[in-house]
Design brief:
The complex is a heterodimer.
Chain A lengths: L4 H12 L4 E8 L5 E6 L5 H22 L7 E5 L2 E7 L4 E7 L5 H15 L1
Antiparallel strand pairs in A: 1-2, 1-5, 3-4, 4-5
Helix pairs in contact in A: 1-3
Chain B lengths: L2 E3 L5 H11 L1 E8 L4 E5 L4 H24 L7 E5 L3 E10 L2 E10 L5 H18 L11 H15 L3
Antiparallel strand pairs in B: 1-3, 2-3, 2-6, 4-5, 5-6
Classes of the chains: A alpha+beta, B alpha+beta.
Amino acid sequence: MTAPAAAYDKALDLITRVRGVRGAMLVSAEDGIVVAEQLMEGIKGPAVSALAASLATRLRRAMEAAGVGASLFWHLQAEHGALLVVPTPGGTLVVAVAEPDVNVGLVRLELLRAAEVVG
Amino acid sequence: MTTRAVETWTLEPLVKFVKEAGARLVLVMTSAGQVLAQHGFSRAVDVMSAAALGAAIMASTDEMARQLRQPPFAALNHQGERHGIFLAGLATGRGRLVALVVYDLDVSSLGLVQLFFEQLAAELQAASPKDSVPKQVLAADFERQLSDSLNTLFGR
């Protein structure tokens, strides 16, 4: 059963409450379109979602080729921030955009909780 | 895969779009179906069919929007099992143009096509000749112009 939009908002709210998180999104992994978002000004949601979904497709193929199964969590650290993603079994990506010094463990926990809500 | 243009100002933005969006086939045409540039087509007959069908779809949706008293729809996407078709209008100094994009779902996605289409539209707008009045295609000239365009598009 599909979770209602309010549940999506609540899940994103829990992610964005973590200090250092600048935004969170639910993205359709298949088409790279934003399903729900809570982003700070200046973050280009459609661009992040399209490129994250494209990356997810390539990573999935790499994981399959390596024979290590589906990816559960990825953390891309950049100079000025980080992108953290949890793919759900239903084909949604739970994405967080964060400051470089964010508590990665805490964000990961909230992303996994959100992924359970989204399914 | 080759990219060719009848109007050369369309070439660079189109080449960039194809590379970034991972598009398989692209047509840039006027709303009447006159092709200005193409990527990926190997046969003239396919270009002619795709341009005619794309222009007809745009004309239908424009009319639907008119009947709903709305501005024309920005874009249309059809998603199949393996391919997606994205059709959208864009404003340029050459008048309103239409882009028809076919993408493989294995290689690209609607999000990527939409994202890079915005760049394509901006770059075509910037590159287009300013203050140019679109030439009216007369029935008498149509076949010759079509033949000239296809010769350019397929390097004959």
